[in-house]
Amino acid sequence: MATYTYLIRTGEGHRKEGIIEANNLTEASEQLRTNSEVTIVKLTEKDTSFDFMGPFLDRFTKRVAKIKNRVPMNTMVFFIRQLATMFTAGLTIERAMHFLATEEKNKKFQNTLTTTENDIRKGLLLSDALERHSGIFSNLIISLVRAGEVSGKLSSTLEELAIYMENVADTQRKVISALFYPVMIIVFLFATLLFTFLFIIPKFGEVYASLGAELPVFTTLILNIGDWVQANIVFILLMTMLFTFIMWILSMTDTMRLLLDRFYFKIPIFGNLVRLNILAKFSKTLGILLDAGVSVLESFQLISKVVENRVYELAVKQAAHDIENGVNISRALKDTMVFPSTVIQLISTGEETGEIDQLALRAADFYNKQVLAIVDRITSIIEPILLIFVGAVILVILLATYLPIFQMGEALSG
Questions:
Q1: Closest CA to 357 of 266, 258, 275, 291
Q2: Cα separation of 198 and 228, whole Å?
Q3: Is 36 a residue whose pLDDT tops 60?
Q4: What is the pLDDT of residue 141?
Q5: Is pLDDT at 238 greater than 90 in this prediction?
Q6: pLDDT tens-digit profile of 323-353?
Q7: How far apart are CA 191 and CA 262, in angstroms?
Q8: CA–CA separation, 208 and 222 (whole Å)
């Protein structure tokens, strides 16, 4: 007998998933349809073979597909907004996808939308059609669309998703704008240092050597560094590329993801920014899912795929396990030791009032404002720090190259 995983919607509109054994797909479908009110959303055969490399290769394939078929954030936001508007206005998903594919200017994304439209025409759900392009559509989009389909509230879910992605895009623009100037300064400084070590410092070294000048220790050290960089520039570049590639590969393993995500939290200022952004995503997604009628346990299972941080992914899974064993939501979140008291208190209040979804959305708004405040603070702090750093580097170079001039007179007389 084969094993099948299923996703169904009961007559009351509740989502239910699990595993069933049957001789074939037809028999599995008949077993699930013993209750006429059950609607089969998804039924697929489960691969029971052991595959150690499966999860890694899946992440690798998605990462490569995302790089190869990268869709700008603004394009994706516009697509979700237009899809939500058209579906709310009464168009079918198939017709809406057809119009959006026809009008799309990005050729790669246009091909994706056309393929998605064809899959929907063949009978696939929108979430399943989008999941076939998981390198382009994020887990957040796929999970929320699937939740809307199961709950029968796809229209309102798409609208909420559009608003959320517009807010994310706005925050992303502000972060990029805040980091553009510092990044440009750092790139320029690195290029200046490379040019100095490869061309300018070696010339000074030749002049001083021809004059027989006794160089200061500091200048000698800089000249030696310059000689080493010039002699090993190819090796340095190759090692840098190799290290970057190895880290990129390792970042797709669970262990390295966990280590890197923990490290990100320890970076001053930026670590707090990453944490607040994750909390905003967690709260917003939880609010949207619960508002769409998805159960708490199923919402947590979907959120674990959305947070995109291994620390919080494990925490959400642990909380889901505790909730399944009868622990209330606020207590389960508190036991993970990663969620702040603000989230826990709001969820606890929501449990008492029956408005967890609304309070989760308020928590998301609170954390979004915190993110924007930190971005503004970074902008005001980082510029003077960079100016001081650039000035210090230039001072070091000037001292190393011009200190021997004070001894030049003695060298010339000799």
A1: 291
A2: 9
A3: no
A4: 86
A5: yes
A6: 888 888 999 999 999 999 888 998 999 988 8
A7: 31
A8: 13
> Can you spell out the DSSP letters for 148-212?
HHHHT-HHHHHHHHHHHHHHHHHHHHHHHHHHHHHHHHHHHHHHHHHHIIIIIHHHHHHHHHHHT
Nearest by Cα to 230 from 192, 201, 209: 201
Averaged pLDDT for residues 103-124? 88
**Terminus-to-terminus CA distance in the chain, angstroms?**
96
- Which segment of 61-65, 130-134, 268-272, 385-389 scores lowest on mean pLDDT? 61-65
CA atoms within 13 A on the CB side of 109: 20
Contacts of 120 (CB under 8 A, 6+ apart): 93, 94, 97, 126, 129
The residue ranking higher by pLDDT, 223 or 212, is 223
Q: Estimate to the nearest angstrom the gap between the alpha carbon of 301 and the chain centroid.
A: 18
Residue 279 · residue 309 · CB < 8 Å: no
| pTM of the full structure | 0.69
User: In this predicted structure, what is the pLDDT of residue 239?
Assistant: 93
Amino acid letter, residue 153: K
Residues contacting 93, CB < 8 A, separation 6+: 83, 87, 120, 126
Alpha-carbon gap, residue 240 to 234, rounded angstroms: 10
For the segment 48-102, what is each residue's pLDDT rounded down to a tens digit?
A: 444 445 566 666 676 676 667 677 888 888 898 999 899 888 888 889 999 999 8
Q: Where are the alpha helices (DSSP H) in 196-309?
A: 201-211, 217-231, 233-250, 254-266, 270-291, 296-303
């990663």: which residue's tokens? 338
User: How many CB atoms are closer than 10 A to CB 286?
Assistant: 29
| CA diameter of the chain | 106
Residue type, 159: E
Q: Are 307 and 281 in contact (CB under 8 A)?
A: yes
Whether residue 409 has pLDDT greater than 60: no
What tokens does 320 get?
């889901």
Of residues 406 and 316, the one with the higher pLDDT is: 316
SS3 content of the chain, % helix, strand, coil (to 5): 75, 5, 20
* Residue for token pair 């890694």: 56
Q: Which CATH superfamily is domain 182-414 in?
A: Type II secretion system (T2SS), domain F (1.20.81.30)
